[in-house]
Amino acid sequence: MRVINSDEITKRVEQMCIKANCCLNNDIMDALKKAEDEEASEVGKEIIKKLEENALIAAKKEMPICQDTGMAVFFVKIGKDVHVEGDSITDAINKGVALGYTKGYLRKSVVADPLKRVNTNDNTPAVIYYDFRDGDRIEITFAPKGFGSENKSGIKMLNPSDGINGVINFVVETVEKACGNPCPPMIVGVGIGGTMDKAAYLSKRALTRSIDERNPDPLYAELENKLLEQINLTGIGPQGMGGTTTALAVNVEVYPTHIAGLPVAVNINCHATRHATEII
Questions:
Q1: Under a CB-based contact definition with an 8 Å cutoff, are residues 27 and 275 in contact?
Q2: How far apart are CA 154 and CA 45, in angstroms?
């Protein structure tokens, strides 16, 4: 049994909160450069260029890429041969979030109650998903989720007979309804299968996968490509100003489901699909 002190988790989370909010991932930077070259609209090209410049300035000056530094979402894989001493993992993560958002001068956007609307003033509590694995390591992935894009996400319980065309239609319709509000070019996470809540979880987790990586199943890799093509044909374009780059990527994650159901969830993110991973 390997013992990890909770202070180490807190320290890593604090660092991730600042890094992820200030440094755009290389896969997205590369996709923006490619999109700038391929975008048909001159206005769209200029917008993408500004997004690249913004990301470079943010990294250089250690300032947030976007004023909305998100609700802190974590995906945590815990090895069965790990024991955490000190605080619980949940408390350790929340302490790290509080420190990171305070020390990093990141906007604190979390309210303690959805109707009373009183700010917690440290961006806690985080939303944390746990997965237990073999091994003696803890892998923590942090994804700050801005709500300009989160608010445009959707879920639908399709009939099995709707099939792949039903999935495509719902995803594209969701993006069309979102239009320019999620600050495109966007990254689109799609979850298919499980139950209603599982599909939503899958769609959010999909956004933490590098956009350079396609789904390992050829069927779903092709679906990702088809969805990206269809979304970019909507003409919404960068920042909703028209063009051929509405999305940079579509990531699809799937899970077994009931014979009577076909749950589909769409979680949208702006180009600043920020995430960081630490392994302890």
A1: no
A2: 29
- The answer to whether 23 and 102 are in contact (CB under 8 A) is no
Pairing of strands 186-194, 262-269: antiparallel
Sequence length of the chain is: 280
What torsion, rounded to 10 degrees, do the Cα atoms 223, 224, 226, 227 define? 110
Cα 154 from Cα 175, distance rounded (Å)? 9
The full set of domain ranges for the chain reads: 2-20+65-145, 148-274
Token couple for 181: 């509000």
Q: Are 231 and 144 in contact (CB under 8 A)?
A: no
First and final C-alpha spacing in the chain: 14
Task: State the pTM of this model.
Answer: 0.95
Q: Which long-range contacts (CB under 8 A, 24 or more apart) does 174-177 make?
A: 174/266, 174/268, 175/231, 175/234, 175/236, 175/246, 175/247, 175/266, 175/268, 176/234, 176/236, 177/152
- Residue 193 tokens, joined: 């299968």
Tell me the pLDDT tens digit for each residue of 263-278.
Answer: 999 999 999 999 999 9
